[in-house]
Design brief:
single chain; alpha/beta; 43-stranded mixed sheet; elongated
Length: 839
């Protein structure tokens, strides 16, 4: 039976009340209750038996204070002791305010410990039993060295407890101590937030470690920790730091504002993290050194001051479905002999290289995406790296670089919109490229430097600003089934001493097929340019090294063009194809009227009647992505079906394909481009750039004058379409008196409405065997309605980009299904659509 003992000052508490807490404890039997009246009780209290001390009037009414210069205020030497609603004051912040001896047990509930730490010691060896401690809804404040120190064989649980204002480490675990902390809030420590040493164990749940002077969570020696749904914020060093052979598992944790790296794994430590985020680290987001290992899944690392992920030594980093955004250096940086494995990871907007592999490190990249970085992927290690099914978009510099002496295998890569070359294989590098695309790069699609001999198979290069493939002096390699389309410079440039082998390569709509320097030794096997067999020795008008060549004569060009006539097409089928295009109602009507007019002209000619004056040249005025190139290609085919053009093919050029870099270069270059279009359509994109607002000595005016003369000389054998922004095309037409008389008609391409953009996405989906759900279609309409129509808006191009991003997100979702059904594989759902804020 529990006996109640009352402690009260003299004159209070009635008959039998004790005047000190110590007296009541000594009088109590195990299991008795000691009820303490309000007040401050200055005592060195020793609990050597199982008693419960409680404040009569609730929390804050009773203070147990250690006498000056003495410690602790409460010493626990017995099992099953408890304090409820009591405040304990230590006499010296560097000494224990509450001390628990080996083998004892204590429960603190609704208590405060101030001016000293809670110190719990367990047996040194496992056979000595354990010391059990529970803190529930407590507060530990104002201690020095440590707030809560668990040493030896201690088993502790902390619930809904705050440890704050500690001049030292918040919580220390050493020896074989273990702590289960739920909703722990640890704030303002000059040392680490939580520190583990020896073989200590920690389980942290739904907790906050904030404002530590050093690491938020520090694991040393052979310690282990698991942390779930917790936050580690504004630490003075690393957010989470593992050394020795420590192991940690983090789930759904947030690490923010670490002054050093967010996650640090050193020596032989092991880190596993899932669903976590690291943001605003003062150094790396993740740093792995020594022979440590880190496994991250579905994690995000944002805005690191150094490289987001850095691996050195022989460290291993395995990341799956992770995202890196922002950062002052690299997205992933592997050095030494480190090994990094990235699967379905995305890296965006870092200031340097998205993924950098140097020294003797290796990388295995599968399904990764790099966007908006200075450079995309840089392989500088000879140890051998692989990149598969990955994309690099919108880099300011090179898309993918295999640096000097490096070894890499690239399969199914897609490089788009690089600010310089798409793919670079440096001096002495070994590269194998299988499949993939390089498109819309400002420089050459692929550059091979001296001594490099890559093996390239099935690569598609589209719309490079310069050469499709540029081979420097002494370079080589084998290029099989290579496709190059719409290059601004010669599709293939081979410098002196270079001896590449091109097999089954196809070149279409390029400024020139082949440019060579003296001493070049290319081998061409079953290659063609615009359907014509390509052999070494074909003259080039504008080699990439700037030396003017000899342009083929119009007769020679005409003969080559006639060598492979396109198959006949039916006029009605072509008109049907025109009317199947999404939107463009006004353009369709205008083209239909032109077709009827030209049918009449053709019939008059067949009847021996003179044809009325008619200019077939057109101005296409409209914003990017409104279908101008598509309609131009169809227009040429229509004229071919009408018998008004011999071939009806399209040659697309812009200023870089027409304007030279020095005096005497522009005329031959413009003539060469024009001659390739004989019998078809010459489509000049951004034609207004040939007539800049402040021309000065700009060579564009020479290109315009050359075009005017060629249009007159070959008025029945070519159609020229000048395209560009509506406002700028007036300046182009007015730049030369001959243009206004030759471009008598302007077709206006209006921006697509949201419903029309949805139709474009649906068309793309049908072409690739996908289906939009009704909800996805409704959400897509809203997405296009909310999309800003500023400078970056691409009309149909934006719709196609949305489709590509949607399929990528759907692929990520479906990949998580164990056995997706055919319906799940083709279904595009609302949450597969890109979020408007991400665009």
């Amino acid at each position: 039976m529990t006996t109640r003992h009352t402690v009260a000052p003299k004159g209070q508490g009635g008959r039998g009340a004790y005047r000190t807490i110590g007296e009541a404890v000594r009088a109590a039997s195990p299991g008795d209750l000691v009820v303490i009246a309000p007040g401050t009780w200055t005592e060195n209290l020793v609990l050597d038996r199982a008693v419960v001390l409680t404040a009569e009037h609730g929390r804050g009414s009773v203070v147990i204070a250690a006498p000056p210069g003495e410690a602790p205020a409460v010493a626990v030497d017995g099992p099953d002791c408890a304090l409820h609603n009591i405040t304990v004051w230590g006499s010296d912040a560097s000494l224990p305010a509450v001390s628990v001896s080996p083998g004892a047990g204590l429960v603190l509930e609704e208590c405060s410990v101030e001016g000293g730490r809670v110190q719990v010691k367990g047996p040194e060896d496992e056979e000595g039993g354990t010391t059990a401690v529970v803190l529930r809804r407590c507060r530990v404040e104002g201690a020095r060295l440590a707030g809560l120190h668990l040493a030896g064989g201690v088993r502790a649980r902390v619930e809904d407890t705050a440890v704050t204002g500690i001049d030292g480490t918040g919580v220390v675990l050493s020896g074989t101590a273990s702590l289960d902390a739920v909703r722990l809030r640890l704030e303002r420590t000059t040392g680490s937030g939580v520190r583990l040493r020896g073989r200590a164990r920690l389980r942290l749940t739904d907790s906050v470690l904030a404002g530590s002077g050093r690491a938020g969570l520090l694991l040393e020696d052979s310690t282990e920790a698991t942390a779930g749904e917790s936050r580690i914020e504004t630490s003075g060093a690393a957010g989470v730091h593992l050394t020795g052979s420590a192991c940690a598992e983090l789930t759904d944790c947030r690490i923010r504002g670490a002054a050093a790296s967010g996650l640090v794994v050193q020596e032989t430590a092991r880190l596993s993290a899932s669903g976590c985020s690291v943001a605003d680290a003062g150094a790396n987001g993740l740093l792995v050194t020594g022979s440590a290992e880190a496994d991250l899944a579905d994690c995000r690392i944002d805005r690191s001051a150094f490289s987001a992920i850095h691996l050195a030594g022989t460290a291993v980093g395995r990341l799956a479905d992770c995202r890196v955004r922002g950062g002052a250096e690299h997205g992933v940086h592997a050095t030494g002999e480190a090994r990094v494995e990235l699967t379905d990871c995305g890296i965006a907007d870092v200031a340097m290289t998205g993924i950098s592999v140097l020294e003797r490190a290796t990388a295995t990249l599968t399904g990764c995406r790099v966007a908006g970085s200075a450079a995309g992927i840089g392989i500088g290690s000879p140890a051998g790296s692989t990149v598969a099914d990955s994309t690099v978009t919108g880099t300011k510099e090179i898309g993918v670089q295999v640096a000097k002496g490096a070894v890499a295998s690239l399969a199914g890569i897609r490089i788009s919109g690089a600010g310089a070359a798409g793919l670079v294989v440096d001096e002495g590098a070994e590269a194998t490229v299988t499949g993939g695309w390089v498109e819309d790069c400002a420089g050459s699609g692929a550059v091979v430097w001296t001594g490099a001999r890559p093996e390239v198979t099935g690569l598609h290069i589209d719309r490079p600003g310069k050469n499709g493939v540029f081979l420097a002096e002494g370079a080589g390699g084998t290029f099989t089934s290579l496709d190059v389309t719409r290059s601004g410079f010669p599709a293939l440039h081979v410098a002196k001493g270079a001896d590449p082998v091109f097999r089954h390569c196809r070149i279409r709509d390029c400024a020139e097929a082949l440019g060579t320097d003296d001493g070049a030794k290319p081998v061409l096997q079953d290659c063609s340019a615009d359907g014509t067999p390509l052999t070494f020795g074909t003259p080039a008008a504008a080699p990439a090294n700037g030396t003017p060549g000899t342009a083929p004569s119009p007769t020679a060009a005409k003969s080559a063009a006639d060598a492979e006539e396109p198959e006949e097409e039916n006029l009605e089928d072509l008109l049907g194809e025109l009317h199947e295009l999404v939107g463009l109602d006004r353009v369709k009507q205008d083209v239909g009227s032109l077709v009827k007019l030209m049918q009449t002209v053709r019939r008059r000619e067949e009847a021996g009647l003179p044809a009325p004056p008619l200019s077939r040249h057109l101005v296409f005025a409209g914003n990017p992505g409104t279908g101008k190139t598509t309609v131009a290609r169809l227009y040429g085919r229509l004229l071919k079906a009408l018998g008004l053009l011999r071939r009806g093919h399209l040659v697309e050029v812009d200023r870089t394909a027409l304007v030279g870099e020095y005096v005497g270069h522009t005329g031959p270059k413009t003539t060469a481009a024009f001659n390739r279009a004989l019998g078809g359509v010459l489509f000049i994109d951004e034609a207004y750039s040939l007539a800049p607002a402040f021309a000065g000595n700009d060579f564009g005016t020479e290109a315009v004058a050359t075009l005017v003369k060629l249009m007159e000389d070959h008025r029945d054998d070519v159609v020229v379409i000048a395209a560009g922004y509506p406002g700028d095309m007036h300046r182009f037409i007015g730049s030369n008196p001959g243009l206004a008389s030759r471009f008598g008609r302007t077709l206006l391409f209006e921006d697509y409405e949201p419903a029309e953009l949805v139709s474009i996405v649906e068309y793309q989906a049908g072409q690739h065997r996908y289906e939009l759900t009704p909800t996805a279609r409704t959400e897509l309409v809203g997405l296009f309605e909310a999309m800003p129509r500023g400078e970056g808006f691409g009309n149909g191009r934006s719709a196609r980009q949305i489709f590509q991003e949607t399929t990528e997100r759907q692929a990520q979702r479906v990949a998580e299904l164990a056995a997706p059904t055919p319906e799940q594989l083709i279904s595009l759902e609302a949450h597969d659509l890109p979020h408007p804020a991400a665009r």
